[in-house]
Write a structure and sequence with these properties.
Length: 375
Amino acid sequence: MGKQLVIVGAGHAHLTIIKNLQEFKDAGHDVTVVSSSALHYYSGMGPGMLSGIYRPEDIRFNVEKMSRDGGAEFIEDKVVRMHPPKKEIVLQSGRTLAYDVMSVNTGSFVPVEAAGASDNRVIPVKPIENLLDARRKIIAALKNRDLKITIVGGGPTGVEVAGNLWRLARSESGQCRITLIAGSRLLDQFKADVRTRVFNSLIRRNVQVVEDTRVSGIKDKAVVLSDGSTVDSDFVFMAVGVKPSPLFEDSGMPVGPDGGMLVNQYLQSVAFPEVFGGGDCISFEPEPLAKVGVYAVRQNPILFNNLLCYLKDSALTPFIPQKAVLLAFNMGDGSAVVQWHSLVWGGRLGFALKNYIDKAFMKKFQISGELETNP
């Protein structure tokens, strides 16, 4: 007898599932996909969209059309509560959905409230759609005046946003003072060579990098720093403190230290084996994983396989994180800084490699006429 499979979130870790929904239908199962948007934007190319290297349609997937073409019901809505003992979820619209098996890939968000920021000048870097909205606002503003833009967060996203804001201002023939507040140290968790290359790339273009200082708040048109000084800012990009939705903890599910749904080696909830998950919204019990997209991409085929196997009561495949991941930072000037194991290099070859990898991933899942869709 067929079962009800519910897919919550259409992020990177679910794309293989959504592309191959017909396999679940052929096995006699009903499938429902719940996503907050009909389009999913690839975060790895988000800063490049901000600067104009990529068009919006270059970096997005039409998950609604993919779902419907695969025979699934697609619901554009948001899950606000889960009831795992009842095998039910509640949507923002008030609708309740029952499931036999569920997979969750709801991503992560930037809690801007922590900095006391709430107006439209403050731009969380997630969801990625925020960067498209920011691009439009900045282009409009540059037509009238010089701008002061601050990026909060010295991690990979903050670095890429800073470099690509420089490119955006340059392409619009505008003047823009860009300040990156890096916290204790720029790219603190990375090799010294990576930090040096990135730092030099930004400084060469007059991007001010502030280290050994944190943001204590945002007031009026200024970012307030921990040393009491302020940075005047027309726009503030928040690229720090990315965390999973409180949905899982609020629903009484076991969570990890970061609040993500706690999963085992098979990407199953440790308490509810019929619930699977991937990407930034999970906390991997065997070992902590960085919030980088490469893990979600690698979880793609594992989740697809394990959902099929669970539905037919066969053995599951463990997710084994790779020991070293290739990291490439798009610096916005046609170059990228790349780290692979102990090897670090940069320049245009680095960007060519990143661009090739990103476009190959997009091509694999852009099967629903995305490139013909208007922005």
